[in-house]
Structure prediction request, 166 residues.
Amino acid sequence: MKFFKKLLAFLKWAIVGVIWSYFYLLMTMILFKSVWGFNYMSRRSWNVISTFWEQGGRIKSGNDYLFVICLLLLIPLWIWGWKKLYKTNYVALLLIPVLWYQNRSAKKYMKSMSRIKIHNIGISIGDDVKQDFEDKLKRQQTEIEKSPKASQAIRSGVKNRLKKQS
Prediction:
């Protein structure tokens, strides 16, 4: 069983990694090509940067700084995204439409009800909660007044036993 769990975890890790890597590489390549005209998978683009640097090129503008920062963040963001997506609960994501529909239909039927009483635990929810609480309190007070007090019942029980023993 332990091996099976490890195998499933590895499969999830691998599948998430492949899918995330594909989309991440696709999006970053589109970003780099459209903004800077740079393909980080091409040797020619890296040779252009190498010759620029060897000839004493300088980072002058904010666009150049942004390019260097994006290059430095390529791998850390890739690893961070992979980790985040691995820890995501995909079952909960798949159940979002079902839960949305369930909540929607529950709200639809709840609008027509102005008051709900749950008798088995004695809770009522609605406009007259205070009134229900006061009614319940009065009923309990009358029951207490009608029934003999516990201390009187104990005393009478003790008297009866003493009479039987003597």
The mean pLDDT is 82. The helical segments are 2-36, 43-54, 62-87, 90-112, 129-146, 150-165. The radius of gyration is 37 Å. Residues 2-106 form one domain.
